[in-house]
Amino acid sequence: MTDELVALGWTAQFEALFEPHRQAGLSPARVSLEHTHIYRVLTGHDEWLARVAGRLRHHASGRADFPGVGDWVAVEPPSQAGDARIKAVLPRFSRFSRRAAGDATEEQVVAANIDTVFIVGGLDHNFNPRRLERYLLVAWESGATPVIVLNKADLVEDPEAPADEVRALAPAVDVHAVSARRPETLDALRDHLGVGKTAALLGSSGVGKSSIVNSLIGHELMRTHDVRESDSRGRHTSTHRQLVMLPGGGLLIDTPGMRELQLWDTGSLSETFTDIADLAAHCRFRDCRHRDEPGCAVTAAVASGELSEARLESFRKLDAEREHSSRQQDERAMIERKRQGRVGAKALRKHLKDKGRG
Ligand SMILES: Nc1nc2c(ncn2[C@@H]2O[C@H](COP(=O)(O)OP(=O)(O)OP(=O)(O)O)[C@@H](O)[C@H]2O)c(=O)[nH]1
Ligand SMILES: [Mg+2]
Ligand SMILES: [Zn+2]
Predict the structure, then answer these.
(1) Which protein residues touch ligand 1 with a CB less than 6 Å away?
(2) Residues contacting 172, CB < 8 A, separation 6+
(3) pLDDT in tens, 179-195
């Protein structure tokens, strides 16, 4: 294990997983940039352009089997004239996924092998706690630790007031009010970025993700967009996900703002909604949906003012969406098994019919 690889996030686990590939004469590399059909990969010494080998493409059953930014891959070094070849993607220890735009059943990996997800929101008039809740939900499922970053603190008189509001929504999560324009405020983020640790920045367009990356690096590596005061939403400025190394160690993945974050694989809501989960422990029915069931502690808390109606609404909306999405994914998995000849047409028809009824 070389220091250069460790600085890129390589660990003993990856080393063990890589053994057969090393036997085959391949090199480990980390994907730093993803274009449509070509990737940029870092080996610790070199930066190569790489393409996916035919065999990997052929065996891929979906988009998630292709490399994403942050992935560790086994590559054949570039030949005289050509690009490097990506022969395999190592298993991910964490990943932030969304539903691919235009296809509700296709998983798209936004960032792989991340220790921390910085969920970035703006403290300007674009401040939106509901949207943060949504990001938080997906972040918990990624396997990485979510941290909420409220940027543009320089624009408000008392940034701690909205920060406290968010702390109340996410009791288990660190919440930092920062400003990309005041680098000293970003020290709180550096604490999450030791040598070889990777954090991905996620959040709506214009909240200042790329500005934070630039400020942490100390120069303008990422393009940012100047927005008029009246339009601090900005337009999409970043167009690619990109992994960069920080001078003091640590790696950051900058991502373009997502117009809508479609949920993917959100197992449980209880980590995001710890308050509702605590209350739900006192509901009469174990499978209480907190709608009109008798003895529901959650609706009782709303009635008494202990829990806000908006918070419960947000929970219900995400819960319904999660259920819908997992049903679609079940269906896709069944169709895929059928395609591979593992189940018959009759079983598939029955499955779809049962779904329709459920
Ligand atoms: N006042 C103030 N403006 C900021 C701060 N951080 C970013 N901005 C401005 O906000 C605008 C958008 O910043 P970007 O860094 O491009 O935002 P982004 O989140 O990367 O946006 P996308 O790449 O489109 O997703 C730019 O005009 C920045 O100068 C901050 O802390 N304070
Ligand atoms: Mg950007
Ligand atoms: Zn209940």
Answers:
(1) 151-152, 154-155, 179-181, 205-211, 224-227, 234, 236-238, 256-257
(2) 271, 274
(3) 999 999 999 999 899 99
